[in-house]
Amino acid sequence: MDMKELDSGLTVSGQLLPLDLAALADQGVRDIICNRPDGEGSDQPNFAEIEREAQALGMAAHYLPVTSGAVTDEQATQFGALLREASGPVHAYCRTGMRSTTLWALSRGGSDLSLERILLRARQAGYDMTGVAARVAHSGVSPGEMVLTRYDVVIVGGGAAGIACAASLRERDKGLSVAIIDPADVHYYQPGWTFVGAGIFKPAKTARTMGSLIPSGVDWIKAAVAAFDPEHKSVVLEGCRLVQYRQLVVAPGLKLNWEGVEGLVETLGRNGVTSNYRYDLAPYTWKLVQELNSGRALFTQPPMPIKCAGAPQKALYLSADYWRRQQRLNRIDVEFYNAGAVLFGVPEYVPALMRYVERYGAALNFQHELFRVDGERKTAWFRRTTSEGEVEVVERTFDMIHVVPPQIAPDFVRASPLADDAGWVDVDQFTLQHKRYEDIWSLGDAMNASNAKTAAAARMQAPVVANNVLHALGAASGIANYNGYGSCPLTVERGRIVLAEFGYGGKLLPIMPRWLINGTEPSRMAWYLKEWMLPPIYWRAMLRGREWLAKPVITEG
Fold it and tell me: Which residues are in the Beta-lactamase hydrolase-like protein phosphatase-like domain (predicted)?
């Protein structure tokens, strides 16, 4: 935790973890203010977890969530009131400390502290408040927006899709001015979290600093996006700053909607409730798996779309395989609750998967959507849709439950003119160009093409978008089309994988020759590919613009 002092009795930082609060209490902090909405990041504890720990340490916790880049005058006033009413030193946090600092600066506008001192204190703490300087000087009255800079291509999102696209663009045209906008300090190899939850990978193997991965020649704007203004070719950042573009690529990923399951936030990471969909919780999955000697283990899958649709059952297979090897499986009831109607959407892979379901004695429950969890009572509730279309409630107790949360597009995407009716970026599924704005493109998890949301899909999409963006700029001679390719290595046991590779309409699209890997059968070679080859391919090829087995087919434009 990197604490920065802004004012007498006020410190700020980036995201807190529950274990950080004891140190704050030791330093005399009496009030915690959370300015980060729940569900922004995969490594983010929810406010309820922070509040619970704060109360146990005798501190007050306040939830004042702020959408990044959209700090309002009212929120600044509320922040100032919390500071005045606090019983002692206050610590505020958000993703990076930027929003908390912005709230402080605006709340101090018009006070006895001069603008120069406000800006200086913020700068000394590592936060640039020049974007809101005019608002501070005018006591929160916005005098107008400011253009930060202009680029040929602006990419929103520094995840797998965004960085891969930037690298592919630079490989094709090193004279292009490109910027990636992302506030995160750490980039995660999320496909590795299933292995963390099975004790195969250490968490640190799946994380690298964002700065080390930004392609050479690409500017990194370390800020969050608040809104899109496609009519003026602008992206609105935190602090009401603007970045303008000739072409825009939208790749911010999706949002894990933990609040979509009642009671889940309050019990995550304890009471046997876990999820491999969060960096800090995957190790807890492995802890639970190791400690469970008997009882009932539930595994859930929410309605589609979700990232890596095979991940919910991968957790089941690897857990059950461990219990089988430890000769405990006969004492553990394994149950899978899927909101959908089938085990896997491409039928060619189902027979192999079913053999493992039978091996592990797992009970399959389809059309069951988790809607409530009570960790203290070790109970979960599901809405079951019957064949007649009626909905009934199913209650199950558990000793361990692996929850996959419902997933939605990021808030700033859903609220934008780029979104379709469901909130996803609305694109042509072949060219990945926006259906209404010709200078906007999207790839990765945030767009609405019907492909599987996987890193392998983003790897195929990045060169397509890079080529088509250059074509739109007059620097490429043809158009590329994406065929919907996605890959899901279904880890059915330690040492064997069913390698599902498919495109639009469930068409099988294997890249590896059948004699090497027969994707419809469990394979040791596929396991070797997943454990040893895919991580370096991700870090050293995909994120560096090396399009091994991913070069797009170009048609005349």
Answer: 2-109
> Nearest-CA neighbor of 409 among 394, 420, 396?
420
Q: What is the per-residue pLDDT across 49-101, written as a single tens digit (0 to 9) for each? A: 999 999 999 999 999 999 888 888 899 999 999 999 999 999 999 999 999 99
| Higher pLDDT pick, 330 / 224 | 330
Distance of CA 453 to CAs 160, 271, 306, 443, 450, Å?
A: 12, 30, 7, 10, 9
Q: Is 88 helix (H, G, I), strand (E, B) or coil?
A: coil
According to CATH, the topology of domain 4-137 is Protein-Tyrosine Phosphatase; Chain A (3.90.190)
- In this predicted model, what pLDDT tens digit does every residue of 521-530 receive, in sequence order? 999 999 999 9
Spatial contact of 280 and 45, defined as CB atoms under 8 Å apart: yes
Confidence (pLDDT) at 295: 98
Residues 292 and 379: beta-carbon distance below 8 Å: no
Active site residue 488: yes
Average pLDDT over residues 507-532: 93
What angle do helix axes 350-359 and 311-325 make, rounded to 10 degrees? Answer: 40
Active site residue 34: no
pLDDT at 23: 96
Please count the CA atoms within 13 angstroms of the CA of 179 that sit on its side-chain side: 22
Length in residues, the chain: 557
Burial label, 373 (beta-carbon count in 10 A; 0-12, 13-18, 19+): buried
Q: What is the DSSP pairing of strand 218-221 with strand 186-188?
A: unpaired
From 3.30.950.30, 3.50.50.60, 3.40.50.300, 1.10.238.10, which CATH number describes the 148-254+409-556 domain? 3.50.50.60
**Per-residue buried b or exposed e for 137-176, using 16+ beta carbons within 10 Å of the residue's own CB:** beebeeeeeeebeebbbbbbbbbbbbbbbbbbbbebbeeb
Q: How many CB atoms lie within 10 A of CB 232?
A: 12
Give the CATH superfamily of 258-406. FAD/NAD(P)-binding domain (3.50.50.60)
CA torsion angle 110 111 117 119 (round to 10): -50
- Residues 34, 165, 240, 488: which is the catalytic one? 488
Residue 539: C-alpha distances to residues 159, 171, 232, 504 (Å): 12, 16, 35, 27
The catalytically annotated residue of 34, 94, 165, 308 is: 308
Q: What is the DSSP string of 394-414?
A: EEEE-SEEE----EE--HHHH
Q: Is the separation of the CB atoms in 219 and 178 below 8 Å?
A: yes
Residues 6+ apart with CB under 8 A from 63: 34, 47, 51
Say if residues 446 and 251 touch (Cβ distance below 8 Å).
Answer: yes
**C-beta of residue 308 within 8 angstroms of C-beta of residue 488:** yes
Q: Judge whether 148-254+409-556 and 258-406 match in fold.
A: yes
In 237-374, alpha helices (H): 264-267, 282-291, 311-325, 350-359
